[in-house]
């Protein structure tokens, strides 16, 4: 190995470990990450960031699929949409890409408001999305299964992507049923974006999924692992009677699992900042704070249904602390890469990282 590879491996390890901190304490994130690491074979976040770097170029279209609608209030949750918009910001700044948020109707107002917060122009029309710079597109995807194929075909024709990223988007099980974390049927509430993700994958488009439980789009990659170790994921594990369990069926080629999906998006931003040697690609804490407030003020809810400045039941302060730790890991890794050159050489000579 060379010094660059050692540094990349270890900052990747840092980011993976940070986003799998377990403040709730019940261990699901650790269960998921074990399966993820065995599947990915190396730090997941950095591997996904490198894949994006290898594929994306100026003006390339990137789909970001998100938006999980929760019971009983039938509002979309803050997890997913905030990270999606911050990820869109990074894609524009790092690559000059054209991100397109694909979401249910319940996220429409939040995308509008958050686009201003992250500094991007918002467009709904295909021509504007393709032609306008410093912009993010918004497409509201159907909840009607019989219309999903047609809309997916239209979007792919008008805006052929180079990558698709699903973050905290609902994923149907093998019976075509969408579930909450505890197995309630929410099929009628969710956008049927599985078909779009599947079509992208079949077309050879780079596909990445970010999830924190197993009922999210793309998490079918870990289906056997989830069914064995995660509650409600096994067949007959749901409470709706479909007998299919909560585990999503659609499998992504590349996955990031995390305690909260939002953290996965932020770690992907941080990993990209490291690869580009540009820590400024990581957004400021003040922007993060404003984004969380804005999403909540648009009626989005946390995991427990509260209209609160929280994501997945974790308050704003924790998210701000974690973002800053990610930033400092990137900043210090880049700074010490030159300062610690002799240490890199001696560590490499010991061949620990080649085992």
Automatic annotation (TrEMBL):
InterPro entries found in the cross-reference section: GLUCM_C (IPR025504)
Domain (D-glutamate cyclase-like C-terminal): residue spans on this chain: 15-324
Domain of life assignment: Bacteria
Name of this chain's protein: DUF4392 domain-containing protein
Provenance organism: Kineothrix sedimenti
